[in-house]
Amino acid sequence: MSAASLRRAVRESVGGLPREFWWLWTSTLVNRLGAFVATFMALYLTLERGYSASFAGLVAALHGLGGVISSLVAGVMTDRLGRRPTMLAAQASTAVSVALLGFMQHPAAIAAVALLVGMASNASRPAVQAMMADIVRPEDRVRAFALNYWAINLGFAVSAAVAGFVAEYSYLAGFLGEAVLTLVCAVLVFVKLPESRPERTGRAAAAEPETRLGTVLRDGRFMGVVGLSFLISLVFTQGSVGLPVAMGSAGFTPGDYGLVIAVNGFLIVALQIPVTRFIEHRDPQRLLVLSALLAGYGFGLTAFAGSIGVYALTVCVWTLAEIINSPTQMSLVVRLSPVHGRGRYQGVYTLSWAVASLVAPLMAGYVIDRFGAGWLWGATAVLGTVAAAGYWALMRGLPAGDAHAVAKGTSTAAADREDLAAGTESRTGV
User: Which end of the chain is least crowded, N or C, by CB within 10 Å?
Assistant: First the structure.
């Protein structure tokens, strides 16, 4: 590839996005660079503090439960208070609770603060996703969500490596380091990001009824997307819960698992942007069906893995599914969400991943213990097939939605005004 072609590819990948998006992207990257607690909590509790694996699992479950609770609460706050105040409150609370967790000694105190950390750390997600939908043009949303997902994985990859060395020196330093970086993220939001919540005025207020949680739950098509997201999340989460257990049972070491799962992060960092350039204007129905099949059967192939190389190959398959699914599904969620209800819709969507993070470990442990790892991988293939059929059925007859904005090249605000005047905002199936 020539230098001119490379520059053109870079411009097409990152050009044309508003300045506010890049500050939001930067805050995401900074936040993920400090992801210490989620990565090293189990090791901290078992190796540093001497607690049992069962207690570490309980703490992880409470952390996930906090995310389930905050998904709905933060979604409502995002619509009522605004995107910026919700992000600031979530990040400040995360910094305080993470720092506090590092000083907790009693098991009950550790468990209680872990619940608070889970609530606080998950609370900013609906606001971030709603703000991204507010400030990015409809035709650029798949690319924007992909770039944000790339930042999440890049930050996590760097933080996992650096935090490992920090943990060898001091776990407390890791907790405090995450608290400091989260505060830096809050400062960026406070200084650089204006509020983006659309105001309910004039014809917009008359055309679009007020969105409540009940409105979201009665939106049949959208709740179908949430249900399918839950199934896909159950599959993807097995990379961090089922895969290490299965590899350990097969005689592989933690280092072997580390090498295999590193393929996932490397491929996302290397391929997310070029793959997104290829898929961003293609049929989302086909992309979601394809990603569900790749995820299900990518994990299903794990049943036949007997070496590190084959395990790594299966990771390549389901990582491609992850690269395709994440930005495409996020764009679909925005497309089905009314302008003034984006926070609640994003909150309920985030809930699907939070609940999956609770169910997936239980599912993996039960199936492996009772039937063996082969049955778990067979189950993922079934879940992927069901999800693919669900996406195919759900998106049949889905109107063009934001397609008119894409064709005209209009801004998000202009497209939203047109949708509100028509009283639709792509909410078919409500």
Answer: N
